[in-house]
UniProtKB/TrEMBL annotation:
Gene3D superfamilies: 3.10.450.10. Residues 1-42 are annotated as: Disordered. This is Uncharacterized protein LOC111300868. It comes from the Eukaryota.
Amino acid sequence: MSPTDSSSSPPSSSWRLFEDYGDNDDYDLVDDEDESDDEREITDEELQQYKAAFEASDGFDVPSFPGVFCRCLVTPVVLDAYTRETLNPLCVAAMDHYNYEKKTDYQFLKLEKANAQGARGLLYYLTFRFVGDS
C-alpha cells in the first residue's frame, strides 16, 4: 500500500479550505474561544510548505508546526504505547481490506509512522511494515 498510489487522487476541491483562508473576514479557521495564548495562526509560508508536502505525499509525510493552530491540518502523531495500541488494529484492518481487494496475503508487522486529520472525526494516514507473498 503506497502513499503515492495514483489510483486514488485527492478531490479537486481539496485545497478549497486553504484557498479561502484570509480572503473572507467571515470565514475564520480559528475559533478565538478555543485558541490558547501560546498558539498562533499558521503563516502563509508555513501553509505553502504544508501544501507542497501534502501534495507530494498525499498526506503521509507532512511537517509539524508546534504552536500553530489551524483546523483540518494533517499532523504527525506521537507513537507511544497508547497510540500504537489504538492504531495497530486499524493497520491490520487496512491490510485485511487491501488483501481482500488485491487478492494478496500480506501480514501487518509494525506501525512506522502515523498522521491524523481531525474534521468531524479522525482520518489517519498510516505507514507500516508488512510481509508476505502476493
